Amino acid sequence: MKLAAALLLALNLNTATVQQLEALPGVGPVLAKRIVEFRQKKGGFKRVEELLAVPGISEKKWKVLRERVEVK
Question: What CA–CA distances, in Å, run from 25 to 16, 18, 57, 65?
Fold first, then answer.
């Protein structure tokens, strides 16, 4: 039930866990870890568009994710 509710809200890229990121469409464990590593290396996301700099996130995948994530 909590997972379903979480998917209705936008996921904050700066606080999301690997497990939460894996719940996004097209994001598996490897990509979720890359997102977290990118966040740690860069000191956080400033814009959702920065996801495009994460290896494995194409423009097509970003278009699917951009409505499901946010940066706070």
Answer: 15, 13, 12, 7
| Average pLDDT value for the chain | 90
Domain boundaries, the chain: 2-70
Residue 29: which residues within 8 A CB-CB, separation 6 or more?
18, 22
| Top CATH class, 2-70 | mainly alpha
> What average pLDDT does the segment 38-65 reach?
96
Structure tokens at 26: 């097209």
CA pair distance 33, 16, nearest whole angstrom: 11
Evaluate if pTM is beyond 0.70: yes
Question: Which two tokens mark 60?
Answer: 């097509």
